[in-house]
Amino acid sequence: MPYSIIISLFVILTFPAVLYADSNKEVTGLWLSKKKDVAVRLEYCDNENLCGHIAWLSPEANTENPTLCGTKVLWNMRSKKGDPTEWVGGTLYKADENKYYSANLRLTDENTINLRAYIGISMIGKTKRLTRTTESTHPPCHLSAKD
């Protein structure tokens, strides 16, 4: 009898979490950096992988380097074992440093991504938090169609 109560409690307590996880797994969209100076549009490329392009720049960043708009800054991200909340094996271009890094990302909730950039070993890298935004808040900059 106590065994069935434990199983019932487990099912009742985890069911809402399963519903939440299944309904909020979309990683594509517009994502704002922590500094709020750039927004990146994440979308599928090659039907399976994720890519990201600069879609919005703060007025200060746009004045400093207006040619960054449209720059591809993330590519070759693939879903980890079919999990739509974890993406691995990508390349990140940090335009402000003119450097390339390996990258992984994790959708922590429907409005937050943790982007891990590293050289060599992920444990030695840095994690940046991005938050979901909208085009009405961060309208598209004038794209210069770069790859």
UniProtKB/TrEMBL annotation:
Species the sequence originates in: Nitrosomonas communis
Cross-referenced InterPro entries: DUF2147
Residue ranges annotated for the DUF2147 domain, each copy included: 29-132
Full protein name: DUF2147 domain-containing protein
Gene3D superfamilies xrefs: 2.40.128.520
One protein family per Pfam: DUF2147
